[in-house]
Structures are given as structure tokens and as C-alpha cells.
Amino acid sequence: MKKIYLLLTIGILSLLTFTAQAQEAEEEKNPLVITGSVDLYYKYDFSGEENIPTSFANEQNTMAIGMVDIGLAKEVGRASFVGEIAFGPRNAASVGPSSSVIEPNIQNLYISYALTDKLSVTAGYMGTFVGYEVISPTGNFNYSTSYMFTNGPFQNAGVKLEYAFSDRVALMAGLFNNWNVYSDTDGMSDFGAQLYLMPADGWDLYLNFVSGSPSGTEVDITTGYQLTDAFYLGLNLADYSASDENDGGFSGAALYAQYALTDAFSLGGRYEYFSTKDFEEEVGITTEGTAYNAFTVSGNLKAGPLTLIPELRIDTSSDNVFADGDNGFAKTASQILFAAVYAF
Amino acid sequence: MLSDLGKRLTMKSVFLLFFVGMYGSVWAQVTAIPFTADGKLLFTEVVPADSATDDLLYENAKAYFLEHKKKRRGLRQEKTNKKISRTYTCVLYQKGIATQKPYADIQYKVMVEVKDHRYRYQFTDFTFQPYVKTRYGKMEPLKRKTQPLGKVVREHKDWGAHEAAFLTAISQHIAQLKTALTTQATAPDSAKTPMVQLSDEW
After folding, report:
1. Which of A4, A73, A226 has the CB atom closest to B144's CB atom?
2. Chain A environment of B24 (Cβ under 8 Å)
3. Contacts of A80 in chain B (CB under 8 A)
């Protein structure tokens, strides 16, 4: 009798396991995806001060934190959503200087619906479609960021239509709020568009345009080519003009090269030329723009979900805009940085 | 005494059958990745189907390939050679504690050839597209990082954790294909169905 109960128990457990497996198989078709990252870094600028004015990795000679980033995504049938929330200094710096480093902010919150196999509509608050680099440290090879990234949009909230002509050609167009805001009192006054092309296998090309008032107009080309399994080349070109021509703007070009020396270690360089346009500081007084050349060499050492990034960066400028470490100004700045990024 | 033993044996047999039913595979699991001499992945088999005509097998294969309209892309037909193929995609997932996220898209070609009351299937041209998180917070396959799956199997250290799931997915696909061809092949032949004739004389 005991044996029967034992067998019966095992049988029921087996049935439950089988049912659970069936549910798992069903769930596997449309899983709720949870992704995210945490990052931290140590940076030392040889001037002894916070110096290079690009986004995020600013704190000097201290163990510094980036952000905790948590994203949820799900797709069922034709409908999908993404919700991504982040905490920490990197998050705060991505949504404006007055943001608290403790308060969470939305990085992405949008819903998409595929009207047909080729046409989809998306509405919400989305990471910008402009530019090469992104806010999440998991999306960039270098830990420090470029001047073009720092001065371009971070998020574009709005509604957009995307049409895929084929796997190699797609067009997006939409109406957006002003840059980086959840809500906009003057309405969705920006127009944005992106043409995606894949001229060859491994080569992605994005032509981006966003324009509105008071945001201004930015034209951007972002492209990347996986030349071999190990060697990748990327390029970003951008030109931005403020909506009032007296407020200036910027132009820039950045070349990215990355080479995988082993499965676990890659070495990459970024060279950026960036120049601000002349602008009228006060009525009748025009300030000339400043040009920058920035050289960054980074390693990416991967250990499963963890990436360690040692980095050396040297920036030069046409003007004395950097700190020289002696209460004065200099045309050159240099820093070393070690970052750890854990992605899940 | 003997009757008790008989009852116990009967109960045991019932449970034994239950377990066999639970754990016995309804589809044959492929246990290792088969490679060709030139290092490519190839799953293939010649399956006899004596009860079916070649035309019916071909039509069954075509009907199977045309299922799921959304994924119709990549359908190729050679009617004279009774050869048909289509591209499929399966997603491998990275399982976490509470959930899972996509790891890679595996694309592959499935080809069916029909000849002399048998058919041959081939699962070939496997490619691997890893998923990355986009600037929009979404996991999407990175097209520019597409590689032949054979290279990934041989060289990627983290592939081992996904091999079993891959083999299960392919085994299930093979079983599904075979069932689709066999089930429909043994269905009543249209030639044997009584034909209704409409006549003006009634």
C-alpha cells in the first residue's frame, strides 16, 4: 500500500512537472524580459580636478557609482511594451542637472503595435534615435562619452511610425516633444525621421534628422561596419544648430575602431573632432566657437555578465578650457579610468 | 496471495506505463550536433512513406511550410524536382532566477525533397545572431554580428549552456515536420472520396 502511495505521489509530482513544463514552453514563446545593469568607476584626471566636460564619468579620484538600470519588456502578438527605470548619478545626469541622484527616472516607457508585418506605431518616452552612443553603459564600448553624445538629445518622447521596406531598408518618422522631457507644454513640436539602410551584410547606416523649436535642428549620420569577426569600425557625424541662430550649435565627427584580441578581451579607440559654433553671448558680443580633439583608448575585459573597462583619454582644445591643476587653464586634459559594468 | 501479487503487479504496471508515458519522448531527441565534413551543421534523414503518393507528400510539405503566414518569407519551390524549402528562426533564451531574456536568434533553412514514396528533410544553413539591448531598452538581434552557427558551436565558450535547448528545439521541429507530413499523408485520399455529381436529370 505504501508503495502505491509512493508511486502515486511520484506520479502526481511527475504530472505537475509535466504541466509546469508545458506552461514554461508556452511562456517561453512570449517571456517577460527583465534586463538591466549596474556600473561603477574610478577616474583620475591628471589636473587633480573634475575636468573633461562630457557626460557621466565626472567624479574625481573617488570610487564613484553610475546607475542601477532595470528594464521590463514584453511582446504578445502585435503589441509590445518597454518600461525602463534607473537610479544613480548617471541616470540623474541623463535627465538634467537639477535631478537628484537618488530619485528614479524613466529611461524608456513606450508601447508599440505592429499594424502590419512592415508597419508599426510606437508612442511614449524613448531613448533618442539620434547619435552613436547611448545612456546605458552596456551599449557603449568606451565608458566616457563623446562631446556629440553629451550635446545631443538623450530621449525623444512622442509618437512615431516605422516602415520596413525590407530587411535592408526602413524609414521612421514621428512627432516628438522637446528633447529629454516626459511632457511638453508647447506640444509635440519636433519632427524627427530616420532612414535605416544596410548596404552590405554587417554594415548598418542610419541617417537621422530632428528639428523643432526651441529644440533646434540636428542632422546625424551613424554607421557601423563589422569588417571581420574581430574588427569593427563605427562613424558618427553630426551637425546641430540652435533654433535661434545666435545661440550657436556644434559640428562633430567621431571614428570608432574595435578589435577583439580574444573572446574575452577587446581593444578599442575613439577619435572625435568636435567644434562649437559661434554664438552671441550678449547683444552685439559674439563668442567664437571652440574646437576639441579627443582621443580615447579603452579595453573591454569580459567575464560573463561583467565587463571591466580600463581607459585612457586625452583631450585637446583650441582654447584654454581645461583645468591645469594649478588654478589656471590649459588646452589639454588627460584622465585614466577603470569601470566595471555588470549587465543582467 | 497470488491475486494480491497480481493486483500489485497490475498497479505497478499501470504506474510504470504512466511513467513511460510521462518521460518517454513523443519525439526523438537529437543528442549531439551533427557536422558535415566541411564543418557545417546538418540534420537530415530519409523517411519512407509508402502509403502516400509523391504529389501528396509534396503538397503536405508545402502546406506545412505555408503555415504561420507571418513567417512566410524565404519559401522556395522546385515543383518539377518536388523540392521545397523555407527559412525558420528559433530563439534561445538566457534563463535567470525569475525570468529569461533572449540570447540569440538561430536562423536555418529546412528543405524537403520527395522521391519514390519517401521524403528527405535537411536542416541546414544555420546562422547565429546574438541579442543586444538597444538604446530603446529592447532586446533585439544584432544583424551585423551574424555568424555561422558551426563557428559559434566550436568557438564560443558560452554556447555549451544553450546547446541542449537548441537540440530540443530542432528535435521538436523535426518531429513536427514529420507529423505534419505523415498525418496528412495517411488522411483519406481525395481519390477515394465519393464524388458528388450534379446532373440536370433528376
Report:
1. A226
2. none
3. 138
Which pTM was predicted?
0.81
Residue A92 vs residues A38, A98, A139, A180: alpha-carbon distances, Å: 14, 8, 18, 12
User: In 3D, which of A105, A290, A77, A100 has the Cα closest to residue A180?
Assistant: A105
CA dihedral (B165, B166, B171, B172) in degrees, to 10, reads 70
How far apart are alpha carbons A107 and A82 in whole angstroms? 10
DSSP B37: T
Task: Categorize the per-residue pLDDT at A280 as very low, low, confident or very high, splitting at 50, 70 and 90.
Answer: confident
- In whole angstroms, what is the distance from residue B115 CA to residue B81 CA? 8
Cβ atoms A330, A303 nearer than 8 A: no
Q: Name the grid cell of B175.
A: 518531429
Interface of A with B in 237-256 (CB under 8 A): none
Separation CA A11–CA A171 (nearest Å): 55
Please give the Cα distance from A135 to A295 (Å, whole number).
Answer: 20
Find the helix or strand (DSSP H, E) in which A29 lies. Answer: helix A2-29
**Sequence letter at residue A167:** D
Place of cell 577616474: A43
CB pairs under 8 A between A and B: 94
Name, in order, each residue with C-beta under 8 angstroms of A77's C-beta and a sequence gap of 6 or more. Answer: none
Classify strands A322-323 and A190-200 as parallel, antiparallel or unpaired: unpaired
How confident is the model over A152-200, as pLDDT tens digits?
Answer: 999 999 999 999 999 899 999 999 999 998 888 888 999 999 999 999 9
Tell me if A225 sits within 8 A of A210, measured CB to CB.
Answer: no
CA atoms of B74 and B67, how far apart (whole Å): 13
In angstroms, the separation between the Cα of residue B140 and the nearest Cα of chain A is 11
Q: Name the amino acid, one letter, at B18.
A: F
Q: For the segment B109-132, what is each residue's pLDDT rounded down to a tens digit? A: 999 999 998 999 999 999 999 999
Cell readout for A140 is 557603449
Running DSSP on this structure, what letter comes out for residue A208?
A: E
In DSSP terms, which residues pair with A305 in a beta bridge? none
Of A4, A33, A126, the CB nearest to B11: A4
Contact B137 A31 (CB under 8 A): no
Question: Could you give the 3-state DSSP secondary structure of residue B186?
Answer: coil
Residue A295 corresponds to which cell in the numbers above? 582621443
Interface mutation target, options B133, B146, B155, B162, chain A, most CBs of A under 10 Å: B133
- Residues facing B85 on adjacent strands: B76, B111
Judge: B139–A33 Cβ closer than 8 Å, yes or no.
yes
Among A11, A108, A136, the residue with its CB nearest the CB of B18 is A11
pLDDT confidence of B90, banded at 50, 70, 90? Answer: very high
